[in-house]
Amino acid sequence: MTDLAIVDADPTPLTATVGTKFAYGTTGVREALLSFAVSAAHDILEEEILIHAGGKQVEARELAGNHGTRLHVVDEVGDGWLEVTYRAVVDITRPTGDQVGREIDFDRWVFTRPSRYAESDRLAPMAARLFPSQSGIERVNAVGEWVNTHMAYISGSSRGTDGAVDSILQASGVCRDFAHVVVALLRALGTPARLVSVYAPGLQPMDFHAVAEAWVDDAWHIVDATRLAPREAMVRIATGRDAADTAFLTTRGGRTTFNRQVVTAALTEGRLPQEDPSALVRLA
Mean pLDDT score of the chain, rounded to an integer? Predict the structure, then answer.
């Protein structure tokens, strides 16, 4: 499925250099699916991808997904180390026109349904009590504000299996947990919402970052309830229903052991924008 069309865009350009280096020990792994590349929705000025598996350099097959998502498949990973080095220079241009096309109608239905980590059906009564009268951008801002106030950002406080319900009960988590709660509450209120993995210049501590996107005022807009980085400088990687669709590493067969990971994201042209949580901000 091709992506939506952007009309009457008014560019506000920034240039960022982003990348990652990570390594996992592998035993008997048949295939690995990697999600680290900048989305094709961006204008990528330079890009380098270097992958090693089992002690030798390998070429990965690139798969094109929805919304510009680019996945890379490594076959016959085997035993040893799976190592990835990635670097890209990206021209960040924010679209401001209407988003149109048949894909929009499809997405607005798909991203209103409950999903593995965004259990909007279970949260519907709670969402109705918390946000009984808001609509449009007022609703989106109210949900983002509630999640920011209710939850504490604590590294290592959540499990990879936690969904939005778990995160609300624990009142803590990391970026993906904040995004899942935002997505689930908005869907419970009838607002289409989805999860996006991003590179985020200005993020501290630096890592892969996850944010929500909400359909409001005829376009997708970023909602980052962590408020840890300016949304204007973010660079899209992958887009999906929740973290199950945007994981940066998925394997078939065998087992993997984490070794190391470094993520970089910095502006090389332009100044880091000041964040205004109430402003409407869109990703390419």
Answer: 92
Q: In the Cβ-directed half-sphere of 75, how many Cα atoms lie within 13 Å?
A: 3
CA distance 158 to 23: 22
- The model carries a pTM of 0.92
- Domain ranges, residue 135: 99-246
pLDDT the model gives residue 147: 98
Other CB atoms within 10 Å distance of the CB of residue 131: 19
What is the residue-wise DSSP string for 34-50? E--SPPTTSEEEEEEEE
Rg over CA atoms, the chain:
19
For residue 186, count other CB atoms closer than 10 A to its CB. Answer: 29
| CA nearest to 85, candidates 261, 281, 267 | 261
Mean pLDDT of all residues in 25-35 = 97
Whether the predicted pLDDT of 34 surpasses 50: yes
**Pair (11, 115) in one structural domain:** no
